[in-house]
Structure formats: C-alpha cells, structure tokens
Amino acid sequence: MRNFTAYENVSITRMLQGYTEYSSFNRASKILDFLDLGHINKSRMTTELSGGQQQRLAFARAIIPDFTVIFGDEPTGNLDGDNAAKAMRLLSTKLEDLPGSSAIIVSHDMHLAASFADIVIKIAKKANAKNDNDDEVTYYGYIDRTCVYFKDEGSWTNGEKRYTPEEFELFLKQN
After folding, report:
1. How far from the centroid of its chain's Cα atoms is residue 65's Cα?
2. What pLDDT, on a 0 to 100 scale, did the predictor assign at position 174?
3. Beta partners for residue 120, in sequence order
4. What is the pTM of this model?
5. What pLDDT does 175 receive?
6. Which residues are 43's β-sheet partners?
7. 109: exposed, middle or buried (C-beta count within 10 Å: 0-12, 13-18, 19+)?
8. CA distances, 68 to each of 18, 87, 89 (Å)
9. Kind and range of the H or E element at 126?
10. Measuring CA to CA, which residue among 50, 55, 49 is closest to residue 35?
11. Which of 54, 59, 36, 38 is nearest to 112 (CA)?
C-alpha cells in the first residue's frame, strides 16, 4: 500500500486481528530484521524501497498475522537464493509456531520445494490433439496419485518411487 510506511504495511494485517500497533510494530521489527530489512526506519515509505525490498516486505506482511492457511504464488520468485531461503525458513518457523496451520505455495524453484516442503505436487503435462485431422497440439496439466510426493524417513516418495533429496530435486527440475 503506497500511502503506508513500510512498518504500517507489514503491521496492518496483524492490527486487523486486534493486536496493538506497539505489539505489531515489535513483531514487524523482528521479521524485517530476519529478512535483512532491519535498517528500514518506521517512517520510511514503501515507495522508497527497491523491488526486492518490497517483495520481502510483502512476504513479511503475509506471514505476520496468525493464519490457518496461507497461499503463496511464487512468493520468493524475484528474490536471490539467499533471501528466498531466509523467507522460507521464516515461513517454516511461523508454521511450527501456529499448530494446525498450513502453507500452499506455488513455485518453480525446485530447490526450495525439495528443501522446505512436506508434500510436493508435480503437475503432469499431457498432450491433447485438437482433432484427428489437425497437427495442432495443446497441452494441459493434470494431477493423479503418482504426482503427489511426501517426505518419508529422509527420502521423497509417491508410494511407487523413492528418491533421495538430491535425486528428488533433480527429478523435479526435469520437464
């Protein structure tokens, strides 16, 4: 929100849950510190931040409130590897602190998926010819039971195949 300071932006979702500004700003300060944004003072406007800083700020705003389910569409997509990993560690910690909470994340970063997820769903691709007399082929995604992988005793499996973490990451990067 362009007319809010960075701290107001991060804190607003927590304040809407009934927490005080003081408590929300304190929590925001800790989160921003973790995301290497601790140098931002409380009066700095979001418009004064770089694109990467704004994305980390948006991530902080999303995870600061107490939630049951959080959805993220490429929440770390524009961040470098180190900042993406920090953000995902922060989300993992938040999920541990909120029993019964879940995060559903869409990502093309297979390293982050293999490193932080408990369940990975890899959407399969299937060709679909428009008709028998046409050369044009379209593709669509689908999910079946073989597309769902979960961690099991240090490896990844879909019940049929088993991968070490390294093999799983390589498998995810295929296609």
Report:
1. 15
2. 83
3. 149
4. 0.83
5. 62
6. none
7. buried
8. 16, 18, 18
9. strand 124-129
10. 55
11. 59
